[in-house]
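Case study.
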Amino acid sequence: MRIVILAIFLIVFGLFLATQIPVTLTADEVDGAVSDAIAEAQEPVDEDEVAPIVQRSIEKLEAAQRNRLKYLAGAYFVIWLVFMLYVLRLGQQQKALDRRLAQLEQETNQ
Amino acid sequence: MKIVAILTALLLFISLYLIFGYAQIEKSMLEVQKIFYFHVSAALTVFVAFGVNFVFSIKYLIQRKTNDDLLAAAAAELGLVFCTIALLSGPIWARYAWNTWWNWEPRLTSTLILWLIYIGYFILRAALTEDKRKIYSAVLGTIAYLEVPIVYYSVSIWQGGMHPGTGTKWNLEATMRHTWMVALVAFIMLFSLLLALRYHSKKTEARYEIIQQQHLGEVSS
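After joint prediction, the assembly is written out as follows.
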């Protein structure tokens, strides 16, 4: 049971890393996107003026996403932590009970 | 038991895949909304767990069978575990959605009271001798369940709460609804599995105590 819960815990974080991690755009990608947008624009646009605005906007979006993912990861971590602690406690209780039973058996045989 | 364990693990894997890989991202809460699937499933599993406690508490009061008392206690213990999960994961959501970790609104307050009542159930069990413990905890288990409908309908009874109404879960977008339903079934299966394990260990504990008392009786005579 403990192994199953640990495996699920690892899979949660695996899935989390694989699907939820923010995609950080490189400076070259941002420049490429800005150039494409300017090329498609109907009116003349100053690239030097627009590029930093776009960059700041992307940084803000990425920071907001990182912030949201902290809450998501935190909640799932807490859920699995509670399960893990409970299952560990169950295991410890069972071990203690087995020990007491063995001791009692020994005493009865004597 | 092994089949139930495998099925539970499989369902949990599937629900995790659905949560992170299938369910649409909700428009206002974005990724944080994904807390909903396990948070709400844990909260509803609490009602099932305390429901089992209620049924077996009544059964014990009628038939006075020790096994009913043990099953009721095992269900209450798991109800507390799931309630703890709901109470801990809720504030993380609340911090993002409401900008506060805790709010004394009806659903949160009544859930905290429910948790405290069942903590009281275990304090009572620990404080009493065996003969009194069974009957008093069965009475408390029966009365305590009255708090469950109060928690469920708290949003309708007291206006001004921050939780959505009781039926809103069914109005979710299709991928979200399917994901939530699978997560709920997975949680109920997990509860059933843990209940079986806990009941079995409680029965072993009870048997050990009987054997020990018999052994002590033999030694002293």
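Observations recorded in class. The two ends of chain B are 42 Å apart (CA to CA). The mean pLDDT of chain B is 90. We will return to this complex in the next lecture.
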